[in-house]
Amino acid sequence: MAPSKKVLMLCGDYMEDYEAAVPFYSLAGLGVAVHCAAPGKAPGDPCLTAVHDFLGYELYTELPGHRFRVTADFAAAAADPSAYDALVVPGGRFVEQLSVDPEAVALVKAFAGELRRPVVLTCHSQVLLAAAGAMGGVRCTAFFSLRPVVELAGGTWVEPDPLSLCVADGHVLTAIGWPAHGEVIAQLLRALGGRVLGGRGQGVLFLCADYVDDYEANVPFRALAGVGCRVEAACPTKRKGEPCVTAIYDDVAGAVSDEKRGHNFVMTVDWAGIDVDDYECVVVPGGRSPELLVTNEKAVALVGQFAAKGKVVASIDQGHLVLAAAGLLKGKRCASGVPMRVISNLAGAAAVEPEGAVADGKLVTAASWPDLAEFIARLVDLLGITVSF
To answer: What GO molecular functions are on record for this protein (predicted)?
Structure first.
């Protein structure tokens, strides 16, 4: 069935990496079409993204992210914004350029003004609402440095406390940035007329270690939070509140991708306090993290306990290594990228798909992060969650 809702995401070089990827893959996985357009770029052209996180300095550090490909023509989208049900604008330095681009400003003004359709603004992209003259009287949050911008433009500043806060004032949805993505997704689905059934309170545990894949950990984590799941992250060697550093592996066809440092992914529960009965699902993202997890007998045993109790077990790419060690791939269909294909076969997989996401009973596997939309869709289905419009 074709998606009944269509969202436009306004993109550009040095937009925040998570703030582009999370809505793109999450919404697609939940049945919403997302078209990504950038002034001056054609469909297929890449936008360079930026990783913004606090790494021990007074201000966030900017690191290089992924190459995020545009999927739609900006001129066509700007000519007929009424073809879209909502507009999403990630944060990042690219909004400085867009704020003086008449067509980009007009597009934001159309959604915020004439069309009065949902507009999602995160981190620094709220400056576009000010540039469009549409901030007046709007309750708005953003990154802390934008408070004077909001107030100078006639808006009412809302402190981003907690950092997961998404402020919905009519059709305008604002947040400090990617830490609020779970609530942003939930509020946007609601603003689009969506109804979510089955997700409330279901527990999903993400099993991580240092150098977990940046997208593969955070994107499904936020997507599942957006449909009401209680998502937690744990590492055998870290306590609640401690971060796992993530790694970025960019999508380079026909070559081994380079590795870059990504965001911090903070653990939300202590390992010692984990009770399998508190969760319906465990997710093992890829990256180099599984090389640590597979050496920890308790981590491998924990994944095995989920399977033994008939719960959903999911992994992406190198995460399959932990499933193989737990004996969970034997006789199963799975999707494996190049790094895990031989290992999946050695572990007794009945069939190995080279791409996409596969569900076999309560087991969900995906080949790599470009398959995240399908991975999220299969997880949501197995958890009995439905999103309808």
So the answer is: lactoylglutathione lyase activity
Q: Kindly report whether the global pTM for this prediction surpasses the value 0.70.
A: yes
Q: What is the pLDDT of residue 252?
A: 58
- The two three-digit tokens of residue 167, written as one number: 């402020």
Q: Domain ranges in the chain? A: 5-193, 197-388
What whole-number distance in Å separates Cα of residue 251 and Cα of residue 366? 15
Residues 6+ apart with CB under 8 A from 159: 141
Residue linked to tokens 């950092």: 163
| DSSP output for 327-386 | T-STT-EEE--HHHHHHHHHTT-SEEESSSEEEETTEEEESSGGGHHHHHHHHHHHTT-E
Q: 18: how many CB neighbours lie within 10 A of its CB?
A: 28
CA angle at 91 for the pair 367 and 61, rounded to the nearest 5°: 85
Q: Does residue 224 register a pLDDT over 70?
A: yes
The residue behind tokens 């999508």 is 251
Please state at what angle helix 17-29 crosses helix 181-191, rounded to 10 degrees. Answer: 50
Would you say 47 and 26 are in contact if contact means Cβ atoms under 8 Å apart? no
Reduced 3-state DSSP string for 263-332: EEEECCCCHHHCCHHHCCEEEECCECHHHHHCCCHHHHHHHHHHHHCCCEEEEEHHHHHHHHHCCCCCCC
| 7, pLDDT greater than 60 | yes
- The correct answer on CATH 3.40.50.880 for the domain covering 5-193 is yes
d(CA 106, CA 124): 18
Model confidence at 3, in pLDDT bands (50, 70, 90)? confident
- CA–CA separation, 376 vs 222, rounded Å? 10
